[in-house]
Description:
79% of the residues lie in helices and 0% in strands. The protein is mainly α. The N and C termini lie far apart (53 Å).
Amino acid sequence: MSNLVKKMLSPWQQYLLVTLSYWSFTLTDGALRMLVVLHFSSLGYSPFAIAMLFILYEVCGVVTNLLGGWLATHLGLNRTMHAGLLIQIVALVMLTVPDEYLTVVYVMFAQALSGIAKDLNKMSAKSAIKTLLPQEQQGRLYRWVALLTGSKNALKGIGFFMGALFLQTFGFSGSLIVMAGALILVLMFTAGLVSGDLGQMKVKPKFREIFSNSDSVNVLSAARLFLFGARDIWFVVALPVYLQMVLDWKHTEVGTFMAVWVIGYGMVQVCAPMITDRSKISERSAAGVPGGKAAFGWVLALSVIPLCMLLIAQQSGGLSGEILISGLLVFGAVFAVNSSLHSYLILKYARAEGVSLDVGFYYMSNAAGRLFGTVLSGAVYQLWDLEACLLVSAVSLIIAAGISLKLPGGR
Length: 411
């Protein structure tokens, strides 16, 4: 009966099930990140020590994306996606122990499991979209990717707020138990409905094929590394610590602001196809969708924003809350377009057979970017200040723009 129900579901219904799984995971992922940053900051951890808590999370993301695409071709995207949910449940339960047992090493290990879970779920969900649409429907693919990516980030923003609110309402352990219970319900509902052969290849690829041999995928992956590293250099650790310690914001205020920022960021991502269609930065291909030139133009425009923030801060005597917040809003909007555009381009460049291999390799670079961004976020902020984080972010974006010139049609 279960197999019959799966076959009766349309691609759009399958897409909704995949999206539900991805949404649920994203809420807990955003909430967990905010819980960890705020809880351990209140326990007296330094910015660099908090950054270290996420190191294995990002390292495992790199490895998981590299291996996850290969596993999906053998097991199917359904199994890898729901394995991500199950591992996240384990990670949440692990952190419910009393505070005296929450050593740096223990939390790093729990975060490592969460990193594996996140990238299994994300790689599976985004790969599934390409398998559900025919190759000629590139415009529809762009819109579906933008909707999935944008809604995910909007919910991640809600997760930031939820994490701060839960911490104040239920405490650290109570919040984790509530989130684990919710994921168990989602896992039970979706596991039996998503097609089991989604993403499986008839001819199983060999292990050595996990590395992409496509120039377009490799160049886009390198650009993605520096793009996401540039965001996390100041967003992951430096920003919430600065808001809490320097501007004296409360937990809920930090969580609310970052939630609103990420929700707005996600809404812009959903609208990215319309924005790039109307923008002079973007060219349109014969298929009516943007390509390499748009990727170069948008990341170059993004690099100007942190530089402008630094210039204004120097002229006004420092990085005030007004400069920081207004700059963040503009940065978030332009970054959102870059992210949606990249998420579409990887599916455009990925091979039709074995899409999860190319997508996994690409998101391995994404995770590597978050890794170096997270480390630098704690280290640069602790050694210098938030303005130094902005400068390093701008340099990273300029490098991403230079790499994007090598994409098809990038010049």
